Amino acid sequence: MSASGPRLQPSLFELSKPGRHSDKVPHPPKDALDRLPPEHRRQQPPGLPEVNEPDAVRHYVNLSQLNHAVDTGFYPLGSCTMKWNPKVNEWAARLPGFAQLHPMAPDDVAQGTLQLLWELEQILIEVSGMRAVTLQPAAGAHGELTGILMIREYHRARGDTGRTDVLVPDSAHGTNPATATMAGLKTISIKAAADGGIDLDGFRAALGPQTAAVMITNPSTLGIFESRIGELLEAVHAVGALAYMDGANLNAILGRFKPGEAGFDVMHINTHKTFSTPHGGGGPGAGPVAVNEKLEAFLPAPRVIREPDGRFRLERVGERPTSIGRMRSFVGSTGVLVRAYAYLRTHGASGLAEITDDAVLAANYLKDRLADSGVFDIPFPGVCKHEFIASASSIKKQTGVRTLDIAKRLLDHGFHAPTVYFPLTVDEAMLIEPTETESIETLDAFADALIEIAREAHSDPETVKTAPHTAPVRRLDEAGAARNPNLRWRPAVGDWTPCPD
Amino acid sequence: MLDALGLESVDDLFADIPAPLRASPLRLDPPEPEQQLMARLSGLAARNRVELASFLGAGAYRHFSPPMVDQILLRGEWYTAYTPYQPEVSQGTLQSIYEYESLIAELVGMDVVSASHYDGAAATAEAALMTCRATGRGRVLVSRAVHPHYRAVLRTYVDGAGLDVDDIPLVADGAKAGTTDLEALERMLADDARPTAGVILAQPSFYGLLEPMAAAAQLAHAAGALFVAVVEPVSLAVLAPPGVYGADIAAGEGQALGIPPQYGGPYLGILACNDSLVRQLPGRLVGMTTDTDGKRAYVMTLQAREQHIRREKAASNICTNQTLLALAASVWLAALGPHGLHDVAALGAARATELEAALAEVGVARVHPGAYLNEFAVRVPNAGAVHRELLARGVLAGLVLGEAVPDEPSMADSLLVCATEITTSDEILLFSRELAGILATSPASGTLVGVPA
């Protein structure tokens, strides 16, 4: 490997040398632990790596360079909204007043953060067209569980205990059915109509007095606005069920469609998608949940309250007995919410509407470029929202090259792959979401790369099938990893050296 | 781009939204340039008071974090990536998760560690659901000395899944006062009509006490139940790990591993188990493998447990997790090493000893006689009012237990206080001196003069 560029790294444990360290904290007095009963003491020290600061920093800097990230390049991962993460957000979350505030600090000490959280709730209420918001859920799926538990509690509080079903379109994220199960409810999967949208007849046939909720992603995971949503919501409410909106695709509808106004009862918002909080290599996110008046009483505790004198406080323990309870410890992922607040303030009303306009424009531009090339199938050729589906179905039939191969070959071109093989309802699917923060030059370069790969599939299929060729590693033995799981390093026992003094 | 699409207005791209469903205009403030935004945020942050001499722990702990930790976290290659769906260009994240799993496995002394959960409370709830899936039983027992937020979340989750949770009471008095009542636990486990899936205790407990974990684990196992230990990871440098005292699952909050308190999150839910339970473990797992050239590489594995494959049959609905916080914990552990971690835990214990002595000197004694590591409850008359008065004098005197756990009458009129390696002798002196001054001006049972209730 060259002196610059990505280098594979030994494990942190292999860097370990007995006695090596950098002094970070003072030594404790020798008798510090003498008052602990021996039966509670650790006998064998944990086999943690012994490294110094240069070793550790180089390890993590070199590892970081093995990653593709928004900061290094285009990341059109459909349904994930990999938009730019503004640097001012990172600065904001690290302000000592925010970062060092203890979560159990008295309200008097926390007025700045409580005000920020309350204002953020008001902004999300306006964006969602709902009545109230909880900021507690830690991620989208956590928000889904919060929402479905509130719906269950709503029915239960009315003495309506026979509602066991949650209707979910078959194109939904896997989190939707998994959420229904966690809430003790049964998933009924509904097939999509021929145009990819909601099959109203299918839903009507499944709706009944046993229906607790429907969960709808709008725009759908095909990138299509559900134009029959009005009729569906009417049918749902006619049987006494409630409607949950999965807000994963909120980036497509800011200022254009407010789920609460349209008749949804509850939705979650992924701050790490729509509101630019960084994805962190898999998290953290935050999944605030917005509800209408039917569900407000059931929101998780504690809520942020603004008193008539303008001061802010958290609800006290047991103050609102109708609450479904807690979804997590403390108030929520406040550090993430500070970033989302900074983003929403940056953009304001006009800026949020522009975000959606530009995101939808970018997706349609890219879709048309691929459609015009004639080399990819575009199963839903009409206007899309913030993302769209392309398929390698024809390419596979003609050349044997699959969507997976094309995704891997994109890595050689310096792009992250789109979301592949999702939704499950489309053959050889690629779900492509460019977001509003990419330039037309980037969109063109990505389209050119995809078209070139499609041609390469005909001229040199082996090169595509064996891609990537320039990434830090080649394709991985995933089957082997699952057959013989190696899930942790096993350090040699007994290589821990006693403290020098 | 509009021209390329042959459109006149971007509105044409939204014609698919039926007219009656179109949104009313957004009523929000206008956009704010970065300079103004920074001034606004600085102003809000300044309204929080973080310069206090703080003795507050109660599930979130202030620790020294070497500057190298945040400098690593600020690299865009870490924080602007997402879930490593394309492993060939995500080896950094994947290897860092594998190393996190390995580091935590060492700390807890167990085989398998999930890639992360939302926080300690959610991890504990997931652990409870694991015990039910693994045993086919539907009842969980949780000690009343587990953090009240964790118990509340547990109740929400367990109730959601249609399962039962019962509280194990605490010993009322004597040498074991405040610890989990093992005799009561034994009686509860003997209820054959309602067999128990899992027993949950925390070490140290919410009240800072060291619990009889080995004995509780034995009782659980004798009744065919699994034992879940809720752990605080820094303490594991010096306290016996769950793998040694027979826990089947360890759950806990990883915030103490160098993650700032930031008013509640993002934090790090730790969830670990032994090999026999790996198929029940929710959340992502990263394993070591090789690429087609035989090079060592890492990949997400055993995904057949997860929602994107199994949908309604998945072990959990979790998708986005806390990867960046797992990285933070790993870098912090690498920075400190085993000796540094030991020193952090031992120094916290030494500071707590000093705090206990200083408070005793002004007549404020511990509530419980049992052993503790670095956090303990003290009896203070009019604890709420005294706490507010101390705040006015620059001291955050821990947690008012009467307000935090109103359902535990034995904890009325007491404060939960904690010390860590960053607690100074000056802060301890300030606390004890101001406390003495306040107590001197008020009769032990009366109300404080000049302090609003």
Tell me what you see in this structure.
The complex is a heterodimer of chains A (501) and B (453). Chain A is α/β, with parallel strands linked by helices and 501 residues long. Chain A has three domains: 1-66 and 474-501, no CATH class; 88-345, 3-Layer(aba) Sandwich (Aspartate Aminotransferase, domain 2); 350-473, Alpha-Beta Complex (Aspartate Aminotransferase, domain 1). In chain A, 36% of the residues lie in helices and 9% in strands. Chain A has 16 helices and twelve strands. Chain A has a seven-stranded mixed beta sheet with strand order 1-7-6-5-4-2-3, sandwiched between helices. A three-stranded antiparallel beta sheet of chain A has the order 10-12-11, covered by helices on one side. Chain A has a two-stranded antiparallel sheet with strand order 8-9. In chain A, helix 9 links the parallel strand 5 and strand 6 (266-268). In chain A, helix 4 (111-128) runs parallel beside helix 11 and helix 5 (140-157) packs across helix 6. In chain A, 58% of the residues are buried. Chain B is an alpha/beta fold. Chain B has two domains: 53-60 and 336-440, Aspartate Aminotransferase, domain 1; 69-331, Aspartate Aminotransferase, domain 2. Helices cover 38% and strands 13% of the residues of chain B. Chain B contains 15 helices and 14 strands. Chain B has helices at residues 2-5, 34-46, 67-73, 76-79, 91-108, 120-135, 148-160, 182-189, 213-222, 242-245, 307-310, 323-361, 383-392, 401-404, 425-440; strands spanning 53-54, 112-113, 139-143, 164-168, 198-203, 226-231, 249-253, 269-273, 286-290, 296-300, 375-379, 395-396, 399-400, 414-418. In chain B, strands 2-8-7-6-5-3-4 form a seven-stranded mixed beta sheet, sandwiched between helices. In chain B, strands 11-14-13 form a three-stranded antiparallel beta sheet. A two-stranded parallel ribbon of chain B has the order 1-12. In chain B, helix 3 runs antiparallel to helix 12, helix 5 runs parallel beside helix 12 (323-361) and helix 6 crosses helix 7. Chain B is globular. Chains A and B meet through helix 1, helix 2, helix 3, helix 4 and helix 5 of A and helix 1, helix 2, helix 3, helix 4 and helix 5 of B.
